[in-house]
Amino acid sequence: MGSAEEDYNFVFKVVLIGESGVGKTNLLSRFTRNEFNHDSRTTIGVEFSTRSILVGDAVVKAQIWDTAGLERYRAITSAYYRGAVGALVVFDITKHQTYDVVERWLKELYDHAEPSIVVMLVGNKTDLAQAREVPTEEARMFADNNGLLFVETSALDSTNVEQAFETILKEIFHKVQQQKQRNSQSNTVALASGSPDGAATAQEEKRPCCVAI
Amino acid sequence: MVVQAKKRELKEAQKRKKQLEERCKLEESIGNAVLTWNNEILPNWETMCCSRKVRELWWQGIPPSVRGKVWSLAIGNELNITHELYDICLARAKEKWRSLSTGGAEVEGEDAGFSAADREASLELIKLDISRTFPNLCIFQQGGPYHDTLHSILGAYTCYRPDVGYVQGMSFIAAVLILNLDTADAFIAFSNLLNKPCQMAFFRVDHGLMLTYFAAFEVFFEENLPKLFAHFKKNNLTPDIYLIDWIFTLYSKSLPLDLACRVWDVFCRDGEEFLFRTALGILKLFEDILTKMDFIHIAQFLTKLPEDLPSEEFFTSIAAIQMQSRNKKWAQILAALQKDNREMEKGSPSLKR
Question: The pTM is what?
Answer without folding.
Answer: 0.87
